[in-house]
Structure formats: structure tokens, C-alpha cells
Design goal:
Elements lengths: L5 H4 L59 E4 L3 H4 L2 E3 L10 E3 L2 E3 L7 E3 L6 E8 L14 E4 L6 E3 L34 E8 L2 E3 L2 E4 L2 E6 L2 E8 L22 E2 L7 E9 L15 H19 L4 H14 L3 H18 L4 H6 L1 H16 L8 H13 L7
């Protein structure tokens, strides 16, 4: 006998055969205190489809991915995305020339009208082909995600300067791991992952950071922002706004830009995002949400389909009603197959093995308060039928 009386359970019960569960159900290690999903969990949301773009050449900019927000594509129309940083109500004096956005020295920084936070950012730039100046006076500009921290733009082709001011540096914070710039006049490609610092109740719970690739070479690897850096003075950690514009620096050199776009990034765990490792509180809430969804699906099913959905819900969160109903259905299922033989038994092979695997999983991971006798009974049927025999 199981937890509930068999004589009561079998009365009028319909055992419908439904489509098998995903092979990943009752398969990988279950959720735990800080991981709301099982390993290989098909209840986890599928990644959004993004059509990849194409790489740039010196002659032609590449195509951005399908979900990118275009900030400048070489056309005068996208110049309207930019305004003067000194006075955002004024149009920028930077110019569109031959498909590039060119700095007009002395006109000041430019910034985007649009504001956002964490992002994947793509920017291509070119220093003047005519070499003038040295150190920080040669092909100097800067890229400022959220207007808060500078990724240095500088012609460092055979042009040394202080290390934390090199092209690809987090200016005033961290030098690049390599000098990967091409010759002046050629297009340089920056791919940047930007994350702002996260503060809660006045305390930093996660540092902001930058990851930077220069012409495909990693120059910053998850570099902490340390307050954002700056000129001469050491910065200190402080909150950033939730959103801010992208700014490009006028440093007195006619640096050109093209193919500027970004992709917003999802929230991190510290901001309540759905990621692999979450806080205990967020994990509990997510597991309860998944369990509730599975129980809602179970309510639309009957027989085996209902039983397995309810059992699956118990993997995420305990529930007395779900346990009682799934126990009742497993008892009824065993009663319906225990006396079968021959072809009738063979036709139930898939269902028997599926229910047995579910019960074994729940028992092995101590999701049930106690192992149900149906597990061993179904295991005995499987063993007797030779279904566990190795394939030849």
C-alpha cells in the first residue's frame, strides 16, 4: 500500500496516455538553494534568436546583428541621433564625411540623444593618416559608455605614452593587455561589454566592469571600473545612473567614427536577472514560479500526463496537494499495469519506464518525504521484462 488507499484511488480514474516528457525531465541534477533550474532544464527559457551580422573590412563596415540599436551607420539621417554634449538642445557640429562621423576640433564632445545602461557596444574609429604630434597629442579621442568612463582612443602605432592612457585602456584605471592598433588612417574596431556598478542602500553590491576587444584582441578582461577613472586623479567607487548617453570625445584631433551600434544586456543576478547563480531569495521565488506554471499545466491534463507534470513541479517546490494527487495517480498507474503480460505489457513499456524514472529521481534526490512503493514495484516489472538488459 502507498500513502493513500488503493481501493479509494482506483474508482473511476482515467489513465490517459500523453506524449512523453522532454528527455531532460527528471534527468540532470535538480535545482538547489542558489540555482533555480535543474541541469539541462528544458523549463528554462530558450535564448532569443538573433541573426548575426558581418565583419567589417577596411573598405566597408560590417552589418550589425539583427537586434542591434543603430547609432551611426554612415548616413546623415543617423547624425540626428547625436547632439552637442555642452548643450543637448543643440545639434552637433561634428560632420558626416564619406560615411564617417568626423570630429570637428574645438566643437566639443558629442553624445547620443538616447540613453541606456549595460550593453554590448561596437565602435569603429580611424586616426588621421597624416601623422602629427606624439603621445597623447596624436589621434586622441575617447568612447564614454553612459558618459561615465572612458575607453581610450589614441593612435598608438609606434607612439608610446603612459600605459593607462593607451588605446584600449580604461583611461586612468587599467592599461590594455596588448597594443593591437593598426596603422594611422586604417579603421580600428572596438567591441566593448559594459556593466555599470550596482549599489543597494548606498553600498556597492557588484562592481561595474569593462571587457574590450581591439581589432579582435582582448585588451580588457572584466576590468573593474573603480569609479570610472579620469585624468590625473584616482577615482573612487560611486553609483552610476541607471541610464546614460554614449559620448565621444573632442580632444583636438579629427578622429573619424563609423558603424556605431549597441545591444542592451539583460540584468545580472544582483539586479534581479534570471541567471544560473542567484540569491537564495530570488532562487526560491523563481522555483515557486516554475512549480506554479507546471501545476497549471497539470490541471489541463489527466492520467499520466497530469501525474508527471505534478511530479516535475515537486522538483522545484514542495506542495502537499501536488504530492497527494501525484501519489494517487502513480498508485492507479501501477494497478493498471501490474498484471499485464505479453504484447499488452510491451505496449506500456515507455510509460512504465517513464513513471519509474520519475519516481526514482524524486526518491534519489529526496524530493519525496519517503520512497513510494510504486518505484520498487515498477522496477520489478522492468527487471522481469528484461528491459534493463544491455543492448547488443
Amino acid at each position: 500500500m502507498s500513502i493513500l488507499s488503493r481501493s479509494t484511488l482506483l474508482s473511476g480514474l482515467v489513465l490517459a496516455v500523453t506524449a512523453p516528457l522532454s528527455p531532460a525531465a527528471f534527468y540532470g541534477d535538480p535545482p538547489d538553494a542558489t540555482h533555480p533550474w535543474a541541469i539541462h532544464d528544458e523549463n528554462r527559457p530558450q535564448p532569443a534568436r538573433v541573426e548575426p551580422g558581418t565583419f567589417s573590412s577596411q573598405e566597408q563596415p560590417g552589418k550589425p546583428p539583427s537586434d542591434a540599436v543603430i547609432l551611426f551607420d554612415g548616413t546623415p539621417a543617423t547624425l540626428k541621433n547625436w547632439v552637442s554634449d555642452k548643450d543637448p538642445n543643440q545639434a552637433t557640429k561634428w560632420e558626416v564625411k564619406d560615411g564617417s562621423l568626423q570630429c570637428v576640433p574645438g566643437s566639443g564632445y558629442v553624445r547620443t540623444k538616447q540613453e541606456w545602461g549595460d550593453c554590448q557596444l561596437h565602435v569603429e574609429w580611424s586616426a588621421p593618416s597624416k601623422v602629427e604630434g606624439n603621445s597623447q597629442g596624436r589621434g586622441n579621442s575617447g568612447i564614454f559608455p553612459m558618459g561615465q568612463v572612458e575607453v581610450q582612443v589614441l593612435d598608438n602605432f609606434n607612439n608610446p605614452t603612459y600605459a593607462d592612457g593607451f588605446a584600449g585602456s580604461v583611461y586612468g584605471v587599467n592599461p590594455p593587455m596588448a597594443n593591437a592598433v593598426r596603422a594611422p588612417g586604417e579603421w580600428q574596431v572596438y567591441d566593448i561589454v559594459f556593466r555599470r556598478p550596482v549599489f543597494k542602500e548606498g553600498k556597492m553590491v557588484e562592481d561595474g566592469y569593462l571587457t574590450v576587444f581591439v581589432n579582435g584582441v582582448l585588451t580588457q578582461d572584466h576590468t573593474p571600473l573603480e569609479g570610472g577613472g579620469g585624468h590625473k586623479a584616482r577615482s573612487k567607487d560611486h553609483p552610476f545612473p541607471e541610464k546614460g548617453p554614449l559620448k565621444l570625445q573632442d580632444h583636438g584631433n579629427p578622429v573619424r567614427y563609423r558603424n556605431i551600434w549597441y545591444r542592451p544586456l539583460p540584468a545580472r543576478a544582483s539586479e534581479g536577472g534570471d541567471v544560473s547563480h542567484m540569491s537564495a531569495e530570488a532562487t526560491t521565488a523563481k522555483r515557486q514560479s516554475i512549480a506554479a506554471s507546471l501545476r497549471a499545466d497539470a490541471a489541463k491534463e489527466q492520467g499520466n500526463g497530469k501525474m508527471l507534470k505534478l511530479m516535475e513541479s515537486l522538483v522545484y517546490a514542495p506542495d502537499a496537494a501536488a504530492l497527494a494527487e501525484s501519489t494517487k495517480l502513480s498508485t492507479a498507474f501501477l494497478a493498471s499495469v501490474k498484471d499485464l503480460s505479453g504484447d499488452a505489457l510491451e505496449q506500456k513499456k515507455g510509460s512504465i519506464r517513464q513513471v519509474h524514472e520519475a519516481l526514482k529521481y524524486l526518491s534519489n534526490y529526496k524530493i519525496l518525504p519517503a520512497a513510494l512503493p510504486e518505484e520498487s514495484a515498477l522496477g520489478g516489472i522492468i527487471e522481469k521484462a528484461g528491459w534493463n538488459a544491455p543492448k547488443k
